[in-house]
Structures are given as C-alpha cells and as structure tokens.
Amino acid sequence: MTVKVAIAQINCTVGDFVGNIARIVAMAERAHAHGADILVTPELSLCGYPPEDLLLRPEFLKRSHDFLGQLRQQLATLTGLHVIVGHPECEDGKVYNSASVLIDGHCMGAYRKHELPNYKVFDEQRYFSPGVQPFAFDVKGIRFGINICEDTWFSRAPEAAADLGADVLLVPNASPFHLTKHMTRVETMREHVSETGLSLVYANLVGGQDELVFDGASFVLDTQGAVAAQLVAFEEVLEIVEFNGAEPVRQPYPEPLSEEALVYGALVLGVRDYLSKNGFPGALIGLSGGIDSALVLAVAVDALGADKVRAVMMPSRYTADISWTDARDMAERLGVRYDEHPIAPMVDAFEQRLAGEFEGRAADATEENIQARVRGTLLMALSNKFGSIVLTTGNKSELATGYCTLYGDMAGGFAVIKDIAKTLVYRLCRWRNTVSDVIPDRIITRPPSAELRPDQTDQDSLPPYDVLDAIMQMYMEENRSGAEIVRAGYAIADVQRVTRLIRINEYKRRQSPVGIRVTHRAFGRDWRYPITNRFNEVFE
Asked: Which residues, including other chains, have CB under 8 Å from residue 458's CB and lie 6 or more apart?
C-alpha cells in the first residue's frame, strides 16, 4: 500500500490569517485532486513566521485559535486528506509552537515543538513553552511522526518519534535562507534523523519577511539519508511524493543553483515581498552610474517589473560624464522611468549658507556629506509625494566601515544589498549579465567612486575591497580575533583599521534601514553590539 504525501511550499504573511488560510486550502484542494493522503504545510503556516511580539497580544492568539477552527471546517469536504498546519496553541497560560493534524472536519491531534531556538535571528524562548510529548498517526499502515524545524537539529525529538513507532518523519519548517544553509539542512537531517532509520519530509516556508528570506528548497530523504525529492528554491510549489512503506519513491529534481544565483534569487524575492506585503506601489532608486546602484536597479526590475521602478540620477559637479552615460544606458536597457535632477544649485545654497560658520576651515567630509544628504532629501521627497519606497544602495562593506552618510545615501526604506559584500556585488553583476546583458560593462570594470570630490576612488579611504571583505568576514561573520586575522596573513595596519571602523560605526548601523539577510551573520538581528563600548582587540 502506498501513501501520497504532498508538500505545500507556500508563501505565508505574518498576521494574514485570511490569506494564509486561502493558500493552505488551495494547496489542499490540489493535493486532494491528485489523490494525496497527507499535506504538510510550513511551520506556523496559519499565522506566518516569525510573528515575534504579536504572540504577546491576546487578540492575536485568539484569532489564531478561531481561524484554525475556520480552516478545519473549510477542509472538511476533502475526505481522507490529513493536513498538517502550524499554529500557536494556548493552554494553561502557556503558548506552544504547534502543528495539528486536521482531517474530515476534526483535529486528530497536535504536536508541540520541543526545541526552541534562541540564537542568531531566533528568539522563540521569549514566546513559547517547549512541548515534551512525541506524536504519531497512522495512514494505510504507515506510521508518521511530526517534528517542527529546530527539533530535527538535535537527536532527542526524532528519537522519540522513532520510539513511538514512526516510519516517516514529517517536518514543518520556517528555516531562513543564508548561503550554504540548504546543504547544512540536508547534512543535519542525515545526522539526526537518518540515524534513527526514519525517512523525512522537510516542508519549508518560502517568501520574504522583513530582513529574512525563506527559500523553500524543501526536500525528502529516504531511510539511508539520500535525497529522494528536491523542490525548487524561492517559488511556491506543491510536490507530491509517494511512499512505499517507509521509503519514498525517488523522483527527478532540479540542478543545484550557483552561489550567485541563490543570492540573487533571495534578493529578488526579498524585494518583491517587502514591497507587496507592505503595500508599496513601486520603488525609487538613486542611480549613480556605479556598480551598487546598478545591482539594486537590476534586482528591483526583476522583482517588480520595469513599470514599478523609477531611477533618479542626481549628478553633482564631480559626476563624471561616463557616469551620466552609463546610468542612461542601463535605464534604457531595463525600460524604467529615468529622470535627472542636478544637485549643484542646491549644494551651492547649503555651502553659501554655511560659509560664515565654516570660514577658515578646510573642506572635508562635511561638504561631501552635504551632497549625499541633498540626494537623500530629493529621493525622500519623491517617495513621500508618490508613495514609492526608496531602495538604498549601500553594501555590507560600506556599512561595516561607516563609508556611508547618515540621512544621505543611507536614507530610504529598504536596504537591498545591506548584507552583500562589495566583492560579491561584482560577482552578482557579472552573473546577472549572463542571464541578459542589462548592466553596462564599464560599470563593472571601472574603479568604484562615490564621486563626492575630484578624482575620488573608494580606495582613497578604504583598503582594497578583497582585503577589506576578507577581514570583515573573519572578524564580523566568523568572530575571529584581531590576532587570528593577522596570523592569517593580513597586514596588522589593515586589520587594526578595519576592525576599528567596524567598532566605531555601530551608531550608524543602528539607524540604517532594514535589509535582506543572505549570510549567516548580518548587521541587524545577528549583530547586537553596544554602541557605547571601549573594548579593543589585541592584534599580536
């Protein structure tokens, strides 16, 4: 006897009970039409993930309970289909991260998540109490256990399911994307689930939620830990896998994506969902003729369509002719609305007004920042008037070192490449041009410059980006000490300089817009350093 298990890799929105139920029901109807016996939806699919402090509001919990009842009724006509749906569950003053099995209009039972992650972007111990009991149910002679996400990153919960006689482990997930995350998931499932002799169905959430992107990429492992099915990344899909006893029937799956394709897909999904889920009609981008704004413009058009993206060039007296030419060229290639607003008259007005205050003082970053802030003011005025959100164009290397201007190029509503190092920006632009040639080659090959003073390049103020990014990765993402980085072969002066810049610019980062997370440690939820601190690294 075979059992058909359907995976609903769906894009839920936090707090959108009506919309989330509609997605679950639509997938359930499709699964039922294809003869599925079980449908697995992602973690907290009813309310969306992560709901964060909404879980502290009694009304949110009440609606979760009420909408679960509505969902149960709407699924009642799909005879014989077991639907696993994730939801908050309240009992005796405690809240649990639960997954219920709904069938024929009633609830067969529920499983409560055992392991509550409280690291990196997760803060579940703030909201939930841990469950302690395993849960399993039978379908056509095959026994299915349930774990939720973090449970399978340890051995305790899978072993408890195996002890209960489970043959197959169903795992609703809300596992956010970062580079290498998919391989880590598969390897971890092999370590903690396959060793119990269970096969596994891993149903992951897809979609953007603030800075998090959930990539989907759900999969099925057989009892030996081999991949039997693999769903695509970054798309809503329904996949049905047949089980003969504990063993899934192997099916073809897509070729793995390159690192660049994965990151680019995450950026596109993150932009699309941030704007659509928050009701923004379109995006505004300050297009400079440089590589960072070029990447953001390409991502925005791929995410939203050219008709919802507007590029604004704001040249100063220092803007090179090739920057004008390349900005116009790229806007034309992508078919977006393109406008030019020279800022020299406005900058002159500021400088004239401040001339008395600045008398006797040499020009410095102050005058450069005035230019950036004029541009920020123009973009935000257009945003206020027309409703489109400003997408900032600063990258992770700049944000780490403070090579950015508060209320200037940092002004905006969403920081698309906030977690993209400069060296990765170049890789992504080259990769995007292999899909279609949208970024003028000179933008990629010319030395980067903020163009805020004559003949300026980024390397006037920063180490070469390959050096800067390597030091940043070791220090910020890998938590390696200054001395370790020096021993890895980097000049002590460069290590001291970069780590100092990272430390003293925390106050800027705290005021930066939320942005898409693509590494395992991004500035934001992952990085919680005090602004006021006198801790200094040892470099020898």
From this structure: 403, 447, 448, 449, 450, 465
Active site residues: 43, 113, 149
- pLDDT for 273-290, tens place per residue? 999 999 999 999 999 999
Helices (H) then strands (E): counts for the chain: 16, 20
Q: What's the 3-state SS for 318-370?
A: CCCHHHHHHHHHHHHHHCCEEEECCCHHHHHHHHHHHHHHHCCCCCCHHHHHH
∠ Cα 257 260 263 (to 5°): 90
Burial label for 332, CB within 10 Å (0-12, 13-18, 19+), is exposed
Burial of 389 (0-12, 13-18, 19+ CB in 10 A): buried
62-76, 102-116, 245-259: segment of lowest average pLDDT: 245-259
Q: Is the dihedral of CA 89, 90, 92, 93 positive or negative?
A: positive
Its sign, for the CA torsion 283, 288, 291, 294, is positive
**pTM of the entire structure?**
0.95
User: How far apart are the C-alpha atoms of 399 and 410, rounded to whole Å?
Assistant: 9
Give the residue from 534, 424, 423, 540 showing the smallest Cα distance to 491.
540
Which CA distances in Å does 83 have to 22, 32, 105, 245? Answer: 14, 10, 11, 19
Closest of 172, 166, 90 to residue 135, by C-alpha: 166
Type of residue found at 368: E
Which residue do the tokens 């970053």 mark?
365
Burial label for 237, CB within 10 Å (0-12, 13-18, 19+), is middle
